[in-house]
Amino acid sequence: MRKYDTYKPTKIEFLDVIPEHWEEKRMRFYGYLYGGLSGKSALDFNQLTNVENKYFIPFTNIANNFRIDPESLQTVVISENENQNKVQKGDLFFLMSSENYDDVGKTAVLIDDLEETYLNSFCKGFRITNEKIVPEFLNYQLHSKQLRHNLLTGANGFTRINLKIDKVIDLLTAIPTPEEQIVIADYLDRKTAVIDELIADKKRLRELYEEEKTAIINQAVTKGVKPNVPMKDSGLEWLGEIPKHWEISRMKNICKVRQGLQIPIEKRFLSQVENSLEYITIRSINNPDQPKEYIENPPKNVICSKDDVLMARTGATGEPIINVEGVFHNNFFLVYYDRKRVEKMFLYYFLKSGRIKEYLLLVAGTTTIPDLNHGAFYNTPFFEFNKHEQNLIVKYIEIECDLVNKKISKTNKLIDLLIEYRNSLISEVVTGKIKVIE
Fold it and tell me: Of 42, 47, 197, 323, which has fewest CB within 10 angstroms of its CB?
C-alpha cells in the first residue's frame, strides 16, 4: 500500500507520526457534547398506543452499527413542554457506559434526517459545528485502535464501566483536509462493506451449524438413537411418534424444583467475604468475565453444586444450566431429579431440546417476560426408559455435537480474522499510515 510523501511526529499517544499536512486538534474544537434522555422511568418506554410517543436511539443501535439504523429505533413518551435534546443528521453518538470494554466508548454516526428523535440516557451526542470536519471520517477515526485506546484510558467502574466526558472532549485527533476526509470515508465505506458481507456470510453459516446441533439434540432426546426401533404415537401433536418402549411421563414424576433467592444489589458483595458464596444470576451466566457477586450466610436450601441442574424460570425461560455452584437467583429453578432413574446429562439435553423449550415458553404465559411457574413445569412431558439407553443418547449427542462444534470454532476464527482485518484497515487509513487518495 502507498504511503504519504512526508510525515511529522504527533502528540497522539500510541501513534508515532501522521502525514505532514494533517492537523492535530482536540474534539472540543469540532463541536460539543449533549446529553441523552433524562428524568425517565421504565413506564415511559414502549407504550405502543400512547399519542405522546416519540422515537429514540437505543443503546444497541450504537453498539451494533457504524451508522445509526433508522429501522431500529424505539419509543418513549415525551410531553409537549418537556426539555429533551433532539438528534440531528451529522451527529455522532458515544456509548458512555457499558458492562464491558468492547462497547463502552463506541461511536455511531447519524447520516439520515430523522423526524423528532431523541437519544438513550446511557449515551452522549456530539454535534459537529466545525465545517471542516466530515462526520463520517471522524466516526471512522474514533474506531481506530489508537484513539479508542486513548479514549478508554481511565474508564472504570464495578458493575458498569463508565467513560469520562473529559476524555471525549479532550481527545486528540489528526484531521486531513475536508476533501481528503470525504475520499477516505468513501474508500472505507466500500472496503468495509465487502468485509462486512463476508462476516455476515460466516455468521449465517454459524447459525446453520447451531441449528444442526439443535436438530441433533431434538432427534436424539425425542426419537432415540437406536435404528429400526418400533415407534408409537406420543399422544402429543407437537411431538409425533416416540420409541414404543418409552413411557410417557411428566416432570412431576421424576423431579422436584426449588426457587432461589431475590437479593437486593445493596446486600451483594463484589469480593468474597467470610461465610459468603457466589450469587448466580442470568447476568453472571451470560457474562462470565464480569466481576462476580457474593452474599453472606445463605440458607442451605438455595445452594447448588456442580452436580445439580439449574433451569432459567424467567429471563431465558427453559434454558438449562450445569456446572455452576453457589447461591442461585429467584429467576432459576433448582431441579432435584431422581438420580436412580434419570441421568443428569440426559435431563440437561432433554431440557435443551428446542421442542421442549418451545413448549416451556408456551406454558410460561403471554406476559412481556415469560415466567414459568411450578405447576406448568411439573406438567411438562418427560420420557422414562432405562439409564443405559439415556447414556447412549448422551454419548451420541456429545460425539455429533463435538463434530459440529469444531466447524463452529473454525468459523469463529475466520470471523475474528475478518473483524481484525477490518479494524486494522480502518486504523491504518484514518491515521495516515496508508494513503488511499491521489
Answer: 42
